[in-house]
């Protein structure tokens, strides 16, 4: 076991460094055999990992349990994602945008989805952003109505 303070090599199982007396950090409870038996997918450690993939410009996304070739990074397929994190497709965005444009029913669906009608985070965020656009549009319409009404009043009075 190597001391993190002085770098001296100590016997495994000792609590203090024999060279500087610093407290030694205990090694992980996992051994190489534990990783080889299937623990690699749970801990992010791949016993077959090579530093060569880290320095190449190509990333291998072959069927190896989602492991992307760099330590600690996994790439999940869409079917492996939990339902609440699944992305919307382009047609999904298009369909929801058409639904939200329906005058009264669309606005009701917009409110329901934006404030808790779905577990999908991406759909909820899309509905919330669309709701913010509605708020901005209403504020702009009111602002232009007030400004336009003020100008109409001034011109009608002859000033």
TrEMBL record:
It comes from the Bacteria. The chain crosses the membrane at residues 94-118, 130-157. Keywords: Membrane, Transmembrane, Transmembrane helix. The keyword Transmembrane helix applies. It holds the Pfam family Zn_ribbon_3. Residues 2-24 form the Putative zinc-ribbon domain. This is Zinc ribbon domain-containing protein. It comes from Blautia stercoris.
């Amino acid at each position: 076991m190597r001391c993190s303070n002085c770098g001296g090599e100590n016997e495994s199982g000792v609590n203090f460094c024999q060279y500087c007396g610093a407290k030694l950090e205990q090694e992980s409870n996992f051994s190489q055999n534990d990783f080889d038996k299937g623990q690699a997918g749970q801990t992010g450690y791949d016993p077959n990992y090579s530093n060569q993939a880290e320095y190449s410009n190509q990333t291998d996304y072959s069927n190896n349990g989602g492991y992307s070739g760099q330590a600690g990074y996994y790439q999940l397929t869409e079917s492996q994602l939990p339902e609440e994190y699944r992305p919307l497709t382009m047609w999904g965005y298009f369909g929801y945008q058409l639904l939200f444009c329906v005058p009264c029913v669309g606005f009701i669906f917009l409110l329901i989805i934006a404030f808790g009608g779905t577990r999908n985070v991406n759909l909820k965020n899309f509905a919330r952003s669309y709701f913010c656009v509605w708020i901005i549009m209403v504020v702009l319409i009111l602002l232009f109505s007030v400004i336009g009404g003020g100008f109409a009043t001034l011109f009608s009075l002859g000033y």
